[in-house]
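Let us work through a complete example step by step.
Step 1: write down the sequence.
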Amino acid sequence: MTIRRVNLAKSAQKQLRKLPRHIVENLAAWVDDVETRSLEEVRKCPGYHDEPLHGNRQGQRSIRLSRAYRAIYIIKDDGDIEFVSVEEVSKHEY
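Step 2: predict the structure and record it as tokens.
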């Protein structure tokens, strides 16, 4: 299945209004990349650090928007990507 559609959940849209502009631009670039080339191709780009999550977030994936921020998404049954949140990751985790 080729995935080329990205939806932002209302909560993610609200979070984006409060984030630094470069983070919003990085997410927009990833969305554009997915819609142009497909998720499968974009996952091959090491710069996004697309990875599956574990524990309470099993079934979700994340991409890195910077060293301090990541976006968390799920792939819905209809093949769409839905961003569920854009989260700040504390820098001490690196």
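Step 3: interpret the result. Strands lie at 6-8, 51-52, 61-64, 69-75, 81-88.
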